């Protein structure tokens, strides 16, 4: 069985406004519903566990019936950090039946089914896989207000989600590292546990909605979304 943990427990403070970004609408549906539907319609996914802020769970449960989300089996409360939220989701996974666990940002509704399937399959083969996109900008190293060097971007990638792992690999990474720390993604914890992670090529359109302009970009990109 392949389980997906979708993390949408953030407050969206960087976005601004009174509504968390994952509940803002694009084309008549909340961002989080678009994200859930991408995984619902993916043959590589058997079940979905959604992680929300504890104060958002009741309201979301009242509205989720409008949508056909048969694979959404659990909604759990998030923690104080992203890592804690993922751990709460991981604790809700059935360890006896789950082979691969994928983790995805709730605010990335433009992920394609191909990206999901390829990342899960690579994790099944190698133990750990990270969807990533090439860096197209020239990257400068700075000190204060001065440029001190130019970094070779051919060796750089932007980490996207989903990131997928065999269950035992991700569980071991959490057991060996502090979930309350500064980890911004699951690969960071798996790297620290000494496990090699395979890169899966992703599309730069798989953006994370963080700022108001990202929502406008997502609305435009939805018309060109490919599976």
By DSSP (H or I, 4+ residues per run), the number of helices equals 7
Oligomer: single chain
Order of helices and strands: EEEHEHEHEHEEEEHHEH
- The CATH class assignment is Alpha Beta
Got a strand count?
11
**Sheet with the most strands?**
7 strands, mixed
Compute the CA-based radius of gyration.
17 Å
Distance between the termini: 22 Å
Strand content range:
25-35%
What is the name of the CATH architecture? Alpha-Beta Complex
Which homologous superfamily in CATH is the superfamily?
Spore Coat Polysaccharide Biosynthesis Protein SpsA, Chain A
Shape category: globular
Mean pLDDT, rounded to whole units?
A: 91
> What is the CATH fold-level name?
Spore Coat Polysaccharide Biosynthesis Protein SpsA, Chain A
Helix content: 25-40%
Low-pLDDT runs of 5+ residues are none
Question: Helices and strands: which structural class?
Answer: alpha/beta
């Amino acid at each position: 069985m392949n389980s997906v943990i979708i993390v949408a427990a953030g407050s969206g403070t960087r976005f601004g406004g009174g509504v968390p970004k994952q509940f803002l609408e694009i084309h008549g549906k909340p961002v989080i519903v678009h994200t859930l539907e991408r995984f619902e319609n993916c043959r590589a996914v058997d079940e979905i566990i959604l992680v929300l802020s504890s104060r958002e769970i009741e309201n979301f449960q009242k509205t989720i019936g409008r949508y056909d989300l048969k694979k959404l089996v659990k909604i759990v409360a998030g923690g104080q950090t992203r890592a804690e939220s993922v751990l709460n989701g991981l604790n809700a996974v059935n360890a006896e039946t789950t082979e691969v666990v994928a983790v995805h940002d709730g605010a990335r509704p433009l992920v394609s089914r191909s990206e999901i399937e390829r990342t899960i399959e690579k994790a099944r083969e190698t133990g750990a896989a990270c969807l990533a996109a090439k860096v197209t900008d020239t990257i400068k190293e700075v000190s204060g207000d001065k440029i001190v060097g130019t970094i070779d971007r051919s060796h750089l990638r932007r980490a996207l989600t989903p990131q997928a792992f065999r269950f035992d690999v991700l569980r071991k990474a959490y057991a060996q590292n502090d979930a309350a720390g500064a980890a911004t993604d699951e690969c960071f914890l798996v790297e620290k546990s000494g496990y090699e992670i395979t890169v899966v090529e992703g599309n730069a359109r798989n953006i994370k909605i963080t700022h108001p302009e990202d929502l406008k970009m997502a609305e435009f990109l939805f018309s060109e979304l490919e599976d």
